[in-house]
Amino acid sequence: MNDDTDGGVDDEMTDRLIEKLSPARRIRLLTGATTWRTAAEPDIGLGQLVLSDGPAGVRGESWDERRTSALLPSASALGALWDEELLERLGGLLATEAARKGVDVVLAPTLNLHRSPLGGRHFECFSEDPELTGRTGAALIRGIQAHKVAATAKHFVANDAETDRLTVDVRVAERVLREVYLAPFEAAVEAGVWLVMAAYNSVNGTTMTASDLLGNVLKDEWGFDGAVVSDWAALRTAEEPARAALDLAMPGPHSPWAESLAAAVADGRVPLEAVDDKVRRLLRLAGRVGALGPGAPRRGPAVSVRDTRALLRRAVAAGSVLVRNSGDVLPLDPAALSTVAVIGAHAATPRVQGGGSAGVHPSGVVTPLDGIRTRLRGRARVLHAPGPSLGVPPAPVDADRCTDPRTDTPGVLVRLLDEHGRELHAEHRLSGRQLEPTLVPGAHTVEISAVLRPRCGGEWTFGVGGFGRMTILLDEQVLLDDDFPCRTDDPAVVHVTPPLHTVKAVLAPRRPVVLVARRELAAGTGRATILAAAPPEEDPDAALAAAVDAARRADAAVVFVGTTEHTETEGHDRTGLALGGRQDALVRAVAAVNPRTVVVVNSGGPVELPWREEVAAVLLAWFPGQEAGGGIADVLFGHAEPGGRLPTTWAASLADAPVTATRPAADGTLEYTEGLHIGHRAWLRAGRTPAYWFGHGLGYTTWAYESVAAPEQVAAGSGFTVRVGLRNTGRRAGREVVQVYLACPGSAVDRPERWFAGYAAVRAEPGGTAIAEVAVPARALRYWSEADGGWRTEPGTYRLLVGRSAGDVRWEDSLTVTEEGGGEVG
Ligand code: BGC
Fold this sequence. Notes:
The chain has four domains: about 5-290, CATH 3.20.20.300; about 320-390 and about 540-645, 3-Layer(aba) Sandwich (Rossmann fold); about 395-535, Jelly Rolls (Sandwich); about 705-820, Immunoglobulins (Immunoglobulin-like). It is about 25% helix and about 25% strand. Helix 2 packs across helix 12, helix 5 packs antiparallel against helix 13 and helix 6 runs parallel beside helix 8. Beta-D-glucopyranose binds near residues 53, 154, 231, 357 and 491.
């Protein structure tokens, strides 16, 4: 690494600094000082480093709804961009946010793969494909780190599902690890990433914080010179991880290293050199982010709120994937419309991010309904019908629905009480979901209270979330009082998404009631306390009929469907891919009365769309972040082209999907029996056709693939370029993503049927031409030989394929790969 990226701190200097510290003071640096900070050592000029989640925005040190963050589209939407320039800009935005919040290290990107569509954290990962994941992650890393903020490649490695994620032992062949699951991390190291996070799970019998892969592969073989941080509380023992290549245990101040590493070093079970190497890496990291020595203050690029919003809105449109557009129903022409029906619960309450540690508080959200209304104002009438409720547990109360009983201002009152119920602290807050109340000495109970003015009468549902002893009171009457023990160690569940316990009560319309939730703060019950409320459910048949009526009266119907925070969240895998509630029935009923029915899917990962051939258009909008509505409206009405291509193959139904297993066997192991064959590779191998292939996505124009220039021969060890001549044959300017795949039918080793090797995007005006230059790296041809313990490229005849998706090949020819040393030909 050069001086530029080291902030002027070289090894000689760090070694001199280390020598000034006693072993105990060195060891102290290896555990966090708090949940989000590392320890400082003022004697050597080392400041604390602040680390923060998460991939879709930078939360900062606290879970406080008043400290808002710019909320990006979730990772699966970024995986759909296929646009490294835009990804770097989004990385720059994360760096700006980090600087604004005093954050040195952003805990992103997540480089695990979409192995199973059921993966609960699918929304937080980019793609099913290692090459696309690597390129997407590398671009984001470059964008973040260009501004002296560290990125973190996580979770190293094979943390591709959530079930038993703290303990599962993933069994995966070495070749598969190398070619599939490690590959995106290797790309991250090549991009110069400064941190890698060791995952909770084990791989082939060893927990990742103590795995050889950290030392042998990541550091020695790939030359990673940054630091390895544990996932939060992933470190369970002191010695093996200390001898292995883990560098930093988070969070702190308690950790097995804080407790017993000093003794292990003192009696020689862990060499002091191992400690020194860890400290050296932490100092190097501190140097890079400007936290060692006087260093210039770090800054991200200055971005105005207006520019931030414009960038995020552009990203929504650029990542949206149009998978169907029958009769070119999209874009809708506002001048030709008089009434548009906007249908579905997600129209007014979209899901803009996934659940879990990645969650941030956006300063505001433009809902799809807002976005469409703004776009059509003065031009066409918007009829809004939410359709049947999704049947989900009640949402936390908030400033839109409640007031603080003490100040009568929108929001809630949060109090800390001592064991006699005396108030120790009180503050006005904006949300009934409190993940980090201000803790004061002697606090025994957290209390959230709110005045609710029910807009309708009937049977309401109230909920309290968290662990331990909890109570709900309605006008001082106890509705629920019970003990809910915590039976998991998963920090995301314990502290962020604890279960909600509900109870019902009848309210009179508009008569204010005081709601109170209390939770006792006992050890091991986590930090979260939630007070939730939901109005009585409208009759689902009537709600469906109202939606159908709106659709019948409109020139076009836009139906928003999607998942809920109860199905796509960290800490749990999904159990199915069906849309919840009566959403399928809603779409079918609307499509039956309006031929111009456009469905917008608001989910982080694949869902089943059984009606997809019965509607005119289907647009996948993912979890689009705070500017959801503006970006979606831009696409619907043609101000922007839907720019995304699928980063992951979508099954028509879960039963068809070749790889789904996320649940470990009784012995705690999860076998990756499918080997190299995940995603489109698995579909091709099984000879099955999915609903939509990896790489698929329609724009608003059409393209002719007019010519392909590719080498006929290439030497092993060399990359090559495929030049594809394209003509825009439609009536709008557009962007086309040209993809190159490889196959090796006669291979002597197991090979995917076809594998993704590279892409390039071009733009052209109507009638215009462009040449897409797809650079295929040498690594696309190699395989990992377990026998030789190294990379090999098999000489012979390959197939070179150019197409618009893994299932839509426009050109193919053979490619001869010769023995190493022949150089690129053609
Ligand atoms: C997650 C990480 C996250 C960390 C800190 C863990 O539970 O797996 O992705 O960075 O918590 O919030």
